[in-house]
Amino acid sequence: MARAQIISAAKVIDNVGCMQHCLTLEQRIIDLGHPLRQLHIDPLSTDWHSPEQPDHFRSGCGPIEALARAQQLIQEGTPAVVICGEDNIKTGYARHQRLELMEIYGQQQPITEAYNALALRFLQLHQIDESHFRQLAHALFDNYCLSYRNVLSDEFSEELLPDARWHQPLTSLFRGVDCANPLVDFQGRLLIVSDQLADQLACPIEQRLDIRAVGLSRLQQDGPEGLEQIARYDHLEAAYQDCCREAKVDFADEFKAGQGLLEAYTCYPVVPMAFLLASGLVDVLEQIPAFLQRHSITVTGGMNLAKAAWNNPALNALISMHHCLLNGDERYGMVHGNGGLGYRQGVALLAKVDR
Predict the structure, then answer these.
(1) Which of 41, 60, 81, 194 is least surrounded by Cβ atoms within 10 Å, i.e. has the fewest?
(2) How far is CA 132 from the centre of its chain?
(3) Residue 285 and residue 298: Cα distance in Å, rounded?
(4) CA angle 236, 223, 289 (to 5 degrees)
């Protein structure tokens, strides 16, 4: 069976970046006579409640679902697949249009309030109070900041961090800095081919990544109606376990041993908290601050600082993870996707190719 390998990953954010490496390889594949299947991440302008079209993916879990589909296509004999995402959130919409399109649960239930209700139920289930929850949220944001500084390195400036107004509460549990910031223009491409085609293209082993496994889980209901089941995050644990089982890798052990990188989905603090528990990286919420002192849970700085493009954050994370793994010493990279209020969960494990 063919192995699905990522051979190029490129993005442009607010006109910074270059797609040429990916586009050049795509043209070479076409010139060799191979079909190139395209999978699309839907933009904000796509009606959230409309039926999903073939080869189109939606929600924060959409890019992970697209990756699973790409892996399946490669294993079934498709030689090459490209996952494409483009959404000009900053410049492509008037403010009122953007706000209206983001009201996916109706005007009476903003996403911030829906997540606040979810978090309230989550902390009840785990028997912690609101003050403790806010302390954990602060620790998470500090962790994102450290990663963000490391990503930017010499280009980092304190002016790039959110100003004081973003540290004010938006809800009873969340500050502005705790929430995803979608105001960015984004284009991204992820090129996935069979290992045979990668050989034909003479792509060096050190420039490839294996898609080792993808775990997916979806509940029947999203939004406030599905809150009770979402808050338990059993489906997230199932997606994570399925991914590790398929890959035959205990990612938690590899990560703690310094052999793994992680991009948790950080739209609101309850989501990465749930991931840390579901993955076994921590056993109880009280362990999170000490864990965050030792480990970065994003490679980008999270959606809060690296910003997000509606349905594209996990695609941005996959692209960033590709480059981090190729340029670093770690062997594995895991990317988490969270769709809607959390009814869709996806976990992808990438790995360096054995030489």
Answers:
(1) 194
(2) 26
(3) 18
(4) 45
Contacting residues for 341 by C-beta, under 8 A, at least 6 apart: 105, 111, 114, 115, 118, 222, 223, 224, 226, 227, 230
Burial 36-71 (b: 16+ CB within 10 A, else e): bbebbbbbbebebeeeeeeeebbbbbbbbbbbbbbb
Q: Give the Cα separation of 110 and 116 in Å (integer).
A: 10
Q: What is the pLDDT of residues 165-190, one digit of tens each?
A: 999 999 999 999 999 988 999 999 99
- Name the pairing type of β-strands 344-352 and 56-57: unpaired
Encode the chain in three state secondary structure: CCCEEEEEEEEEECCEECCHHHHHHHHHHHHCCCCEEEEEECCCCCCCCCCCCCCEECCCCHHHHHHHHHHHHHHCCCCEEEEEEEEECCCCCCHHHHHHHCCCCCCCCCHHHHHHHHHHHHHHHCCCCHHHHHHHHHHHHHHHHHHHHHHHHHHCCHHHCCCHHHHCECCCCCEHHHCCCCCCEEEEEEEEEEHHHHHHCCCCHHHCEEEEEEEEEECCCCCHHHHHHHHHCHHHHHHHHHHHHHHCCCHHHHHHCCCEEEECCCCCCHHHHHHHHHCCCCCCHHHHHHHHHHCCCCCCCHHHHCCCCCCCHHHHHHHHHHHHHHHCCCCEEEEEEEECCCCEEEEEEEEECCC
Domain boundaries, the chain: 4-92+179-352
**Helices 313-327 & 62-75 angle (0-180, nearest 10):** 60
Write down the architecture of domain 4-92+179-352 according to CATH. Answer: 3-Layer(aba) Sandwich (3.40)
Give the model confidence (pLDDT) of 298-320 as tens digits: 999 999 999 889 999 999 999 99
pTM: 0.97
